[in-house]
Amino acid sequence: MPSLTLEDIAAQAGVSRSTVSRVVNNHPNVNEDVRKRVLGVIHNTGYHPHAAARALASQRSRTIGLILPHSVSLFFTDPYFPHLTKGIAQACNQHDYTLALFLVDSKEDEEKIFPRMARKGLLDGVVVKTGHHGDQGIIGRMIDANIPLVVNGRPFRADNVSFVDIDNVSGAYNAVTHLILLGRKRIGTISGPANSTAAIDRIEGYRKAMIERGLTVNENLIAEGDFTEIGGYYALQKLLPSQPDAIFAASDIMARGGMRAVREAGLRIPEDVAFVGFDDLPLASQADIQLTTVHQPVVQFGIQTVELLIDLIENGINPPRHIIMATELIIRDSCGASHR
Length: 340
Hints:
There is one protein chain. The protein is built from 14 helices and twelve strands. The chain is α/β, with parallel strands linked by helices. It has three domains: 6-49, 434 Repressor (Amino-terminal Domain) (Orthogonal Bundle), CATH 1.10.260.40; 63-166 and 298-325, Response regulator (Rossmann fold); 168-296 and 329-339, Response regulator (Rossmann fold, 3-Layer(aba) Sandwich), CATH 3.40.50. The N and C termini lie far apart (63 Å).
């Protein structure tokens, strides 16, 4: 008879794998009724935790590293990152872990910081915020060093590493489909940079919606941005000669820049140009024209990443696990739905 796994115990107890792990490791932050139920299943099945994993658990530093590569300037200017970091820090606090932040903006930074991160006993595991092609190097080094690792965002190479990501394709698809159903025909998009997996997936969703709904994908209605407001502003200026009647922007902050460019051109939102963004950051609902946008659970995104990492720390890093989180379209004024 094959040996039982944490997944087996979780299924029988009706809880998550990470909850079983916390019970097995006698973690204090578990509801007592849940703890009793899990322990009852363990007793009835005769499950025995892996001895080696338990031994390693007793030697942990209870410190998790958060690596933000190629993102230092955005970390201080893009409101997305404070919300993500809030979720990561919240989960660390909940599970009694200390969070160590590493900002890696260059190859030189990586060479200086990596030996410290890889030093035995310093970190129990690492979260890398990625999606940028240039981040593959540091991810590979972490894998080679056998450090428990979860990538926040889909890495370019995903087969050998655990990651948590947002369903960017579906989110973009739903946003563009909504604009099409509102009667918009010349739908442009402000994409993120081509070396970002989030941008690649969102442009895929845009193209998929256009094709499936019988509209031609006009390359003149696609402009690359850089997930900044000024990037969205200049991208929209490139699109204006092609006379878009709607814009799907791959981030709220780029949508805000695009909306400013539209207004400066003397056009009305949403009558002349409708807008849909992506993220649902607070700025989306605070503007004078509230932004229709794809809500991604940014704080929960960070929490889920830490939950998975703790699971890997306590129960082993293989096989890699991939979690994709759902999005939701939030309809506000900027798309014109309320004007129809």
